[in-house]
Amino acid sequence: MAGSEYPKLSRNTINRYKGRGKYDYETVNSIVNSVPVLHVSFPTPEEADPFPAMIPMLGFMASFSNPSASLSESLDLYLHGYISSRLMRLGNSSPTGEEGLPLTVAATHLDGLVLALTPNHHSYNYRSAILHGFATPVTDAEEKIWAMEKITNSVVDDRWANTRVPPTKTEMTSTQILKVRIIDASAKVRAGPPGDDRADLKNDELRAKTWIGVIPTWTTFGQPVPSPENRVAKVPEHIVSFLKRENEEGQKNAVLAVKGEPSSKE
């Protein structure tokens, strides 16, 4: 794709609150790469079932052909799953020809609860992204293990190097990686205080009894709890530093959203 943003098509163009819509690679990619769970929707071949399937998955935006590519560049989405799962089995077929299995992927951060004078103006501060693309299985061994490492380290920094690697032949065989070529995507971001009607803001009685504002919201990682089988006395530095950074980053983004300022990029 040329340029620095996804094309605007009928399916990904933001229509309500158009000013909140963003199409640049960096915004979309940073949202996807900083959420712990992606929700992936895909068609099912059962004619009697009219509903598309949806499952939570681990995934990461990156480029195998250009590993040094930044978030502001066009990237592929890699999804991790078990070889016999329905999505992974469907990924080996292509109902639309040679392009791959069509997927819709959703990612969302909640940054705050926006409390207004009336229920109608209550909202959330949030960062969300929707992506559309075609998935194909990764068959190249080097690319597959590269993607597995990327996804593992997206859970906790440097976790791959701090475990038993490389994976065994059985682990490699039972794991499937889908590579999603993104066709289009968009993000929608809401930040700032509540927006109330002028008439309500002039109502002194209402304002005297109704608290308005934003409750900053972010995911907080707690103190690690060792497994009964754990033999390492001290929590490793790669975990400690990860927890510190993520907790600080989450709080900072939630506070920035209260002020109506853009979140920091990972």
Automatic annotation (TrEMBL):
Transmembrane segments: none annotated. This is Flavin-nucleotide-binding protein. InterPro entries: Pyridox_Oxase-rel, Split_barrel_FMN-bd. It comes from Amorphotheca resinae ATCC 22711. It holds the Pfam family Pyridox_ox_2.
